[in-house]
TrEMBL record:
The keyword Transferase applies. GO terms for biological process: methylation. InterPro entries: Methyltransf_12 (IPR013217), SAM-dependent_MTases_sf (IPR029063). Gene3D superfamilies: Vaccinia Virus protein VP39 (3.40.50.150). Residues 55-153 form the Methyltransferase type domain. It comes from Roseomonas populi. The keyword Signal does not apply. Keywords: Methyltransferase, Transferase. It comes from the Bacteria. This is Class I SAM-dependent methyltransferase. One of its GO terms (molecular function) is methyltransferase activity.
Amino acid sequence: MSAFPTAAQKFDPARANDYRAQSRIALAGYDACHELAACMLTATLGAGSTARVLVVGAGGGAQEILTAGLLEPNWRFTAVDPSAPMMEIALANLEQKGLLGRTEIHLGYVDDLTSDELFDAATLIGVLHHQPGEESKRQLLRSVASRLRPGAPLILAGNRYAYTSQPLLLAAWGERWRMQGATAEEVQAKLGKILEGADPPASEEVVAELLADAGFEQPTWFFSSLFWGACLAKRGKDHLA
């Protein structure tokens, strides 16, 4: 899942095919995070509400749409992802679950979307830590904010600590892979890959600062799994991102 070309290049056909299984090992509680994200959106928008939801980085399975769409039958979705192999997986899942008719597919970037029609909510799950440097993260959050109604909720989820700043969490992450059958050599290779392959915000405080700069209110954190955290933040009613 990604939103900018440098990140999109990571998700080639080979990685796209492995994504479903690998993501559930790398993130303990993958399904629970998505379920709670849907519950948080419903708690904010109201059960049985009608809403248009922007799903940024929907490729790789469209789990955000599958979960929220089951809970809220009146919601419609716009799925955005620049990776064709990842989007193909999302399309297959949406069609299988009968949600393709409620989803507009956009192979590209948030900046390509018109800003004339504003969304009632958005999700950004597993995307931000793939954006290199704070400026690209800030740009992405501003792009999302500019397409949301004032007061609309954003679900933001991803890794939110610098990996080397949390050696215990990094070691536990390696043990998680060993628990799933990886050898010691495979664990070291995976640890090396994560250290080179992503650039998470340095802390939850930095996440809050990035959100505030883009015009969002203070986030409410609702899920944590080692480096991963998920929060909900509303777009400020008086801020023009």
